[in-house]
């Protein structure tokens, strides 16, 4: 039981520290930060797949599958958000003639 209490303590501490650190990041650094965390989440996703394939019992397989699915959603969502943010910085130079101009009010 002490292992479970210790693991819960580490989880709560990591969640609190992560929330505090992310809330202190300025807006201008969100794109580079998200790009870096996408790479880290890709590595974590591969580790989750490896652990899920070696799981024994239906509970472990279910938790591993849910973890891999949530990790994949996180990686894909991060790349989509990063792409949209970078699209805002590209401006009207790369837009096709006849398309809407970027007004900044969208």
Tell me the layout of helices and strands.
Elements: H1 2-23, H2 30-53, H3 58-90
Helix pairs in contact: 2-3
Shape: flat
Radius of gyration: 19 Å
Mean pLDDT: 78
Count of runs of 4 or more consecutive helical residues: 3
**Number of distinct beta strands:** 0
Give the ordered list of helices and strands. Answer: HHH
Helix content: over 70%
Oligomer: single chain
Largest sheet: none
* Unreliable stretches covering 5 or more consecutive residues: none
Our measurement of the CA-to-CA distance between the termini, rounded to an integer number of angstroms, reads: 53 Å
Question: Could you say which structural class the secondary elements and strand pairing correspond to?
Answer: mainly alpha
> Approximately what portion of the residues adopt beta-strand conformation?
under 5%
What does this structure look like?
The chain has helices at residues 2-23, 30-53, 58-90. Helix 2 (30-53) runs antiparallel to helix 3 (58-90). Helices cover 75% and strands 0% of the residues. The protein has a domain at 34-91. The protein is mainly α. The protein is flat. The chain is built from three helices and no strands. The longest helix has 33 residues, at 58-90.
